[in-house]
Write a structure and sequence with these properties.
elongated, single chain, mainly alpha, 67 residues
Length: 67
């Protein structure tokens, strides 16, 4: 069973608590750096998925040309 359904999504106070804990553990100066790293990771993932999709499309076109 999925734990999200078991415990539910965090509500308003839970999100505030999570943000405060992140501030305490990482500090205000580290958060922009962490967010930048996360953004770069997401961008690289999207680029990789686009490249794979392009390769699959090219392979499909080559197969159609062979027929």
């Amino acid at each position: 069973m999925n734990t999200l359904f078991l415990f539910g999504m965090p509500g308003g106070w839970e999100w505030i608590l999570i943000v405060l804990l992140v501030l305490v553990f990482f500090g205000a100066k580290k958060i922009p750096e962490l967010a930048r790293g996360l953004g770069r990771g997401i961008r690289e993932f999207k680029d990789a998925t686009r490249e794979i999709k392009r390769d699959i499309d090219k392979a499909g076109e080559i197969e159609e040309e062979k027929k």
